[in-house]
Design brief:
Blueprint: H1 12-22, H2 30-33, E1 42-46, E2 49-52, E3 57-60, H3 63-66, H4 75-87, H5 99-111, E4 118-122, H6 125-142, E5 150-154, H7 163-168, E6 186-189, H8 209-221, E7 226-231, H9 247-258, E8 261-265, E9 289-292, E10 304-308, H10 310-313, H11 334-349, H12 352-368, E11 376-382, E12 385-390, H13 406-416, E13 419-420, E14 427-430, H14 438-459
Parallel strand pairs: 3-13, 5-6, 5-7, 7-8, 8-9
Antiparallel strand pairs: 1-2, 2-3, 4-10, 9-10, 11-12, 12-14
Helix pairs in contact: 4-11, 5-11, 8-9, 12-14, 13-14
Bound molecules: pyridoxal-5'-phosphate.
Residues 65, 124-126, 129, 158-161, 232, 236, 265, 267-268, 293 line the site of pyridoxal-5'-phosphate.
Length: 462
């Protein structure tokens, strides 16, 4: 019998070569990773750490892409998914469901804020946002308001890569004008980013002009044309922007006043990331629709969801012609639901939300000790979602220019010292697995401190 070659036992050199020739890494110029491709092929992970194909281990300060909340290497999740796969791994999302999918929908109704109770399952964050936008539009249509099609979001926020989600996004690092014209009716308002207020105002004397300006936009546009406002409670891509305490309540009031749906995007914020199960809880915010993904399964399998209030979902029930005009093959995937349930059980069993609050407070405190450095402009965050904003000039808050290549160079410096992160704009983000310990934090803060000092020396900043 001819011996079959196991593709997973390829020699290191083959894998590196084949990755360079055939893999298309997202948002990554392949020639940039080519010299260090060995550090980009990850072969295993445990807790907060991953190991590359050359045997080097890193602490993962970003939990993959902000999602491995329970940490790497959880056999329980693999086993839960495998058990479900052996029984029935998938059924049609149109007209069928499964036991784990139902139990998960019920669990989400229990743990999400307010009356959110009906879940439309999808495969990730972009699909969750895309679904939320379509739910909002069809909801208004069914209610007799077909002109309500506009969606308001905040500048510098990221909500996903598919067309609708990209249209409402406005992250600094995505050149979406390439894909214009985008979804009609999207508009962006300034975020509650107090360190760099778009209006040049200062909190609290600004009296939340950024929130009041949203109401002005709604009125200017004609409220009867606005379907939804979408916002992350804490904006990750804006640079870990925690809003002033009154902000989200004001957003809720504006939506209520004009019959607009409020979509809280908790794709990153959710499942313990900010020290509460959902970030909305910090401000008692009850959104009409909540989008989740990432931490729902900690990335063990892809899954996301749009979770909706009953009074909105009920409008779609009843007659056949009212049914939601939106269908995704993988919605409610049974094995993904089984993995999500085990992931949530681990979060609860191991008190990871509490750990996020406590170790997150320690992380913020330790990062604040870097504040004296001339390159550290601002340190902010909540729970295990924190950021250090770097500046060229502390007095003027001048940011680094594109030519300084801060994101690339700083990310490299961190990796050289054994920490995986993804510096974007001028901010070093922290979003480690929720199992992170104080000694892990000490290690990350030491690495960041050394990297900033080295960058400052090279840039002649003192
Ligand atoms: C707030 C937010 N919403 C939506 C998305 C899109 O999620 P995905 O990449 O899973 O499609 C992201 C991705 O980072 C996100 O940060």
């Amino acid at each position: 019998m001819q011996e079959q070659k196991n593709p997973l036992s390829m020699q290191t050199v083959d894998v590196k070569q084949e990755a360079l020739e055939h893999v298309w890494m997202h948002a990554t110029p392949m020639q940039e990773v080519a010299p260090e491709i060995g550090s980009r092929i990850i072969v295993e992970g445990k807790g907060c750490r991953v190991t590359d194909i050359e045997g080097r281990t890193y602490i993962d300060a970003l939990a993959g892409l902000w999602l491995v909340n329970i940490g790497y290497g959880r056999r329980e999740v693999a086993e839960a998914a495998a058990r479900q796969m052996e029984r029935i791994h998938y059924v049609s999302s149109a007209g069928y469901t499964t036991v784990p999918t139902t139990v998960l929908a019920n669990k989400l109704a229990e743990i999400t804020p307010g009356s959110l109770a009906r879940t439309f399952f999808v495969s990730g964050g972009s699909e969750a946002v895309e679904s939320a936008i379509k739910i909002a539009k069809q909801y208004h249509y069914l209610q007799g308001f077909p002109r309500r099609y506009k969606v308001i979001s905040r500048r510098y926020s990221y909500h996903g890569a598919t067309f609708g989600a990209m249209s409402v996004s406005a992250a600094r690092y995505m050149k979406k004008s390439i894909f214009e014209p985008l979804m009609p009716g999207t508009m962006h308002v300034p975020p509650p980013y107090c360190y760099r207020c778009d209006y040049g105002m200062t909190y609290p004397s600004c009296e939340l002009y950024c929130a009041r300006a949203i109401e002005q936009t709604v009125r200017f546009e004609d409220p009867e044309t606005v379907a939804a406002i979408i916002a992350e409670p804490i904006s990750a891509s804006c640079g870990i922007v925690v809003p002033p305490p009154e902000y989200l309540g004001m957003l809720r009031q504006i939506c209520d006043r004009y019959g607009i749906l409020l979509i809280a995007d908790e794709v990153i914020n959710g499942f313990g990331r900010t020290g509460k199960m959902f970030a909305c809880e910090h401000w008692n915010l009850e959104p009409d629709i909540m989008t989740v993904a990432k931490g729902l399964t900690s990335g063990y399998v892809p899954m996301g969801a749009a979770i909706v209030k009953p009074e909105i979902a009920d409008v779609f029930m009843g007659e056949r012609k009212r049914a939601i005009q939106h269908l995704l093959t993988f919605g409610g995937h049974a094995a993904a639901a089984a993995a999500a349930l085990e992931n949530l059980a681990i979060i609860e069993r191991e008190n990871l939300v509490e750990n996020s609050a406590q170790v997150g407070a320690y992380l913020l405190d330790q990062l604040r000790q870097l504040s004296d450095h001339p390159m550290v402009g601002d340190v902010r965050g909540l729970g295990l979602l924190c950021g250090v904003e770097l500046v060229k000039d502390k007095k003027t808050r001048e940011p680094f220019a594109e030519a300084d290549e801060l994101p690339k160079r700083m990310t490299e410096k961190l990796r050289d010292r054994g920490m995986i992160c993804r510096v974007a704009g001028n901010v070093i983000p922290f979003s480690p697995p929720l199992v992170v310990t104080r000694s892990d934090v000490d290690e990350m803060v030491r690495i960041v401190k050394e990297s900033i000092e080295e960058f400052a020396r090279e840039a002649g900043i003192q």
